[in-house]
Amino acid sequence: MTRVFGLVGALSVALVSSAAAVPARRDAALQVKRIGRLSLEFVGQFQNSPPGVTPATHTHYGYLSYIRGVRAFKAAPQSESTALFTFYADATTVRVLADGPLRVVTRVGKLTIYRDASGDATFTKPETFADGTRVLVGTFRQQVVLNTVSNSFSTFHQVTITSTRPFTAGGGGRLQLGRARQTFRITLTGQGTMPGPPSGYIGGYGVSG
After folding, report:
1. Alpha-carbon torsion angle 37, 69, 43, 159, nearest 10
2. Within this chain, do residues 40 and 23 fall inside the same structural domain, yes or no?
């Protein structure tokens, strides 16, 4: 009888110890560091739909050259082929206002940021900037102020994050860019080209707020 109680006691201790160990491992596996104060830098190109297309459409795409708290490139030289994060945005033009030589264009659309270490991104194939793992998706409203004399422009985006997914960074840690319903702003400057493609070139930055 004593031996039976001893076996039961030993089994109980083993089960309790095992049950206690499992949540500890699970918590460690799920631990994610969220980067709440976003600071991003963008390098890219864009393509507008041909004249006469209704509604007019727009895409811009490229790579992130800086992310606060995250390594942006896997190697040197720094370019689209060594960038660890790419972006791709689709938008529709909702209005164009004339103001002398300026055109004030309003668009709405969706922005996606990808984690992609494949090194296959190339501006000759815009779709290669949209073939990684989606780590942030957001909707945006964009205003473009175009100088029709120089064909240069500036843009402002107000982005609302709709989804964000943790990813594994260097060293094995897990990071997440922002949170759902958080907003951030993107400001870009650019130069249009005639003829295209691409329709032009862009560069700029994004910050939370």
Report:
1. -20
2. no
